[in-house]
Write a structure and sequence with these properties.
By secondary structure, this protein is an alpha+beta fold. The chain folds into three domains: 68 residues, Uridine Diphospho-n-acetylenolpyruvylglucosamine Reductase, domain 2, CATH 3.30.43.10; 113 residues, Uridine Diphospho-n-acetylenolpyruvylglucosamine Reductase, domain 3 (2-Layer Sandwich); 104 residues, Alpha-Beta Complex (Uridine Diphospho-n-acetylenolpyruvylglucosamine Reductase, domain 1), CATH 3.90.78. Helices cover 25% and strands 27% of the residues. The chain has nine helices and 20 strands. The protein has a five-stranded antiparallel β-sheet. The chain has a four-stranded mixed β-sheet with strand order 1-2-5-3. It has a four-stranded antiparallel β-sheet with strand order 13-19-18-17, covered by helices on one side. The longest helix has 19 residues. The two termini are 25 Å apart.
Length: 338
């Protein structure tokens, strides 16, 4: 168990924002976390849970305790005729879990390859990519209640998953630490290659009969070609959610913008790529001092080094305003701004 005061969070957020935490502690087991929560000096402090720090933008120092989830472990729990159930610790890197499932020939999360962050953070915003979401394979999670230290179990329904949403971002925000996640993965693979550039990339790879391994490789290739490596350029991946709009509004916009892409969500609504909207407003590749919008993906805001979090927030809201003005669509940040 590691406990520090006046601790720099720069290495613990992928934007590389240089802020400090009043207190910082890393826990590697449920028991260590429960012991930490009982410390008198910690009990009354504001608390922030960090995993990979890939979905947070700090705008100031954190005047409380930052708890870093270090719980590891991945295992196959059991199986039935159709599914295999896999559990992973909340501190595991998400992509390592994808690789573990591929090694065991288990399908369902290959489209979510290379999503940054940890397993424990994945359910909080129901991570997803290329037509797949965590909720599609989610069985249950275990989480420690920060107030009582009790371990509670949440199934799919209890998590109240939505598009980049869960109960942990609303009613239960800041109340739990996810210590493990259990997935239900298919033995008989059902590939999803219709979303984005997966099908085209597989053709370029000369793959005629793709497997889950091929789909994962294609997704990794696409992500690496579009998204900057946080180790090289500070960023948190996709900064905005792809907005869902009524079909009637899309039809009106399509008249003005014939090349406007969209993906059906239901009979009444479609999802429009936020990156396309931002690019049409002229933001792609824009550099302001030491921060800006990435040259290859307008959905990604970047810190080229030494930028303040509040400057990136100003940029985000300038982008939101311009998209609203041009298209009548309001973008929502996907990143947690603190």
């Amino acid at each position: 168990m590691k406990f520090e005061n006046d601790f720099s969070l720069k290495p613990y957020n992928t934007f590389g924002i240089d802020v400090k935490a009043k207190h910082f502690a890393r826990f590697d087991s449920v028991q260590e976390l429960q012991e930490l929560l009982q410390r008198p000096a910690i009990k009354e402090e504001p608390k922030l849970i960090l995993g990979g720090g890939s979905n947070v933008l700090f705008t100031k120092d954190f005047e409380g305790i930052v708890l870093l989830n270090g719980i590891k472990g991945m295992q196959v729990l059991h199986e039935d005729s159709n599914y295999t159930y896999v559990r992973a610790g909340g501190g595991e890197i998400w992509h390592d879990l994808v690789l573990f499932c591929l090694e065991h020939n288990l399908g369902g999360i290959e489209n979510m390859s290379l999503i940054p962050g940890t397993v424990g953070a994945a359910p909080l915003q129901n991570i997803g990519a290329y037509g797949a979401e965590l909720k599609d394979v989610f069985q249950e999670l275990e989480a420690v209640h920060l107030e009582t230290g009790e371990v509670h179990t949440f199934d799919n329904m209890a998590c109240q998953f939505g598009y980049r949403e869960s109960v942990f971002k609303h009613r239960l925000k800041g109340q739990y630490v996810v210590t493990s996640v259990t997935l239900r993965l298919r033995k008989a693979h059902e590939l999803n290659t219709s979303y984005g550039a997966i099908h085209t990339t597989l053709q370029e790879m000369q793959v005629q009969q793709p497997t889950i391994h091929d789909v994962s490789a294609a997704v990794c290739h696409i992500r690496r070609s579009k998204l900057p490596d946080p180790a090289q350029i500070g960023n948190a991946g996709s900064f905005f959610k792809n907005p869902e709009i009524p079909v009637l509004l899309f039809d009106v916009l399509k008249e003005k913008h014939p090349d406007m892409p969209a993906y059906p969500v239901s009979e009444a609504s479609v999802k429009v790529p936020a990156g396309w909207l931002i690019e049409q407003c002229g933001w792609k590749g824009k550099v302001i001092d030491n921060y800006g919008v990435h040259k290859n993906q307008a959905l990604v805001l970047v810190n080229y080094g030494g930028a303040k979090g509040e400057k990136l927030v100003e940029l985000a809201y300038d982008i939101i305003h311009s998209v609203q003005e041009k298209f009548g669509i309001t973008l929502q940040p996907e990143v947690n701004i603190l």
